[in-house]
Amino acid sequence: MDWLGTITLRGMELLSTLFVLAVGFTALAILVMWIIDRVQTKDSVRHNFPVMGRFRYLFGHLGEFFRQYFYAMDREEMPFNRAERDWIYKSVHGGNNTAPFGSTRNLLVPGTPIFAPASFATLEDDAEEAPPVVFGPYTAQPYEARSLINVSGMSFGALSAPAVRALSHGAAKAGCWLNTGEGGLSPYHLEGGADIVFQIGTAKYGVRDAAGGLSDERLKALGAEPRVKMFEIKLSQGAKVMYARDEAHREELTKKEFNARGKIEVSRFKGLGEMLPGQLKETTMDPAKRTLLRVQIVGEDATGSAIDSLMGNKPEERFRFIQERAEFAEDLDI
Question: Helix 315-325 crosses helix 300-311 at what angle (to 10 degrees)?
């Protein structure tokens, strides 16, 4: 083991020599900088405080980065603060750019708009009508909106008849318009008598003919409806929509069609009843695209018993089934 001690000793000697050299060179460099700073006459700070005066410019240069990452709040910097930059970075890389509840904006600055509910209803004598907003002032039939706050687009397929009825009557009472969303115009939208903004969905949804082209007759019919005040065009980002029959097929499409890159949103249909007419037309109703899979029932008696237990009128059977098999459940989609 003498060789190990010899190597260790030589290593220590080498490290000691390097340390002494480093200290010596550092002291020499400080001495040279002290002489240079003391002799020069262009910078009074370095002349009066040799060597130490150099840190003023170093810290001034590094201060920008320290303030950006350690000291500055999310909305303090100009012209673009950290919150705005983070939003841009997430959007560029396809990340989630939505913000949670709350705000990091300073709401105490004079002039900051704040929408707050009133504790008590405003009296008519104290209320002030909002100035109308005119759309298309140079057109043959300009639309004068009476309200600044309106009902945004929600398609009929995402709601229901009672919900659309309620929105229609509520919008009429509030004096605001009702946006139809991309689901088209239904009688329930017109029932309340509110002003209607018809949304033309992606792929001309709502105003296309049987061949998928733009229907002039449909546009004229909608424009002739007195309660339809404006048309809104929904712009799409060119999203690609694919349909997968199972998880393996979805993984195959992700790698083949999307190159496993970018932001991919997955929606699941539990049955045909959840699909819109356009989606049914593109899948189940299209003989060229639909896939027919054979379902073979093995053991009709056992199958019938299972169906009676799970879908019959005896809830205790379903409760017992869940109790016995709950530990095997994975990746539930409820």
Answer: 110
**Cα 253 to chain center, whole Å?**
23
Would you give the DSSP letter of residue 152?
P
Question: In this structure, are residues 53 and 37 in contact, taking their beta carbons and an 8 Å threshold?
Answer: yes
For tokens 């003023």, the residue is 56
State both tokens at 264. Answer: 């991919």
CA angle 45, 49, 50 (to 5 degrees): 105
Q: What is the predicted pLDDT for the residue at 1?
A: 57
Is 0.85 topped by the overall pTM? no
List, in order, residues 6 or more apart from 289 with CB less than 8 Å away.
243, 282, 283
- 234 DSSP 8-state letter: P
Q: How far apart are CA 185 and CA 205, in angstroms?
A: 11
**Residue 85 CB neighbour total at 10 angstroms:** 13
Write the pLDDT tens digit of every residue in 173-208. 999 999 998 778 889 999 999 999 999 887 787 888
- Report the alpha-carbon distance of residue 6 to residue 281 in Å, rounded: 84
Strands (E), 191-256: 195-200, 228-233
Half-sphere exposure of 252 (CA within 13 A, CB side): 7
Strand partners, 195: 177
Higher pLDDT, 207 or 170: 170
Cα atoms in the Cβ-side hemisphere of radius 13 Å centred on 29: 6
Count of Cβ atoms closer than 10 Å to residue 47 Cβ: 14
Q: At 275, list the tokens.
A: 């699909």
Q: In terms of residues, how long is the chain?
A: 334
Per-residue pLDDT of 61-113, as tens digits, reads 777 777 766 766 777 777 777 778 888 888 877 777 776 666 767 778 888 88
> How buried is residue 284: exposed, middle or buried, by Cβ count under 10 Å (0-12/13-18/19+)?
middle
Residue 188: how many CB atoms within 10 A of its CB?
Answer: 19
Report DSSP state, residue 158: G
